[in-house]
Design a protein that fits this description.
The chain is of the alpha/beta class and 201 residues long. It has 6 helices and 6 strands; from the N terminus they run E-H-H-H-E-E-E-H-E-E-H-H. The protein is globular and about 55 Å long.
Length: 201
């Protein structure tokens, strides 16, 4: 089982959706998801432009490389990949200390608990798999490129629960039990899931 951004993000919203993505199943991408992807693409460009003319932080799209963490600044679009994970961070901030601060970029004006949990999970797996020290995470949000910081330790209990569910559900060949939730209306598997729920009455 190799965890990806998509599997992690979808699993947070619905364990059944994460299960289907882990089995390489594809649905009909919703208009909402297409809009979100485009808004996020633009937001990431704006984030990079916010540093134009500055010597530091520096923006880079280089793939993950331990030596480059010695250079102070912000790095964008970093891949962390081995046999267990294939994750891409929107960015990291390195201030010259032993710690790195993972970044998540959202185009919306409000930061959700899902945004923080997703970033916290990314940070946990990167810390575990690459032995990098992470104390804090940052979410970049809104048209004014604001940011909010939180401690990774504040999500310790939730991360432990999610990892337990991941290890229990994803490797299983039996379809997990599922029901309707608020995410259904924008989910690519909405139609097929509703059919099954109707069958179950």
């Amino acid at each position: 089982m190799q965890l990806t951004n998509e599997i992690l993000y979808d699993f947070i919203h619905c364990s059944y959706k994460g299960y289907k993505k882990n089995k390489n199943q594809i649905g009909n991408v919703s208009d909402y998801q297409k809009l979100y992807n485009e808004l996020k693409r633009v937001q990431k460009i704006n984030f990079e432009k916010s540093f134009s003319g500055s010597l530091s932080p520096k923006i880079s799209t280089l793939a993950f490389d331990i030596p480059m963490l010695k250079e102070i600044g912000v790095r964008a679009n970093l891949y962390f990949k081995n046999t267990n994970i294939d994750l891409m961070l929107d960015g990291i901030e390195f201030t010259g200390t032993k710690n790195i601060t993972p970044l998540f970029i959202t185009p919306f004006e409000k930061v959700t608990i899902t945004d923080k949990l997703f970033l916290a999970l990314q940070a946990h797996f990167i810390h575990t798999e690459f032995n990098l020290s992470i104390e804090n995470c940052k979410v970049i949000f809104g048209k004014n490129i604001r940011q909010t910081k939180f401690k990774l330790s504040s999500f310790t209990k939730t991360i432990k629960k999610v990892i337990g569910d991941l290890n229990r559900i994803l490797p299983n060949d039996n379809t997990p039990t599922f029901g309707r939730n608020r995410h259904c209306q924008i989910c690519e598997f909405q139609n097929s899931c509703i059919e099954k729920l109707v069958e179950r009455d």
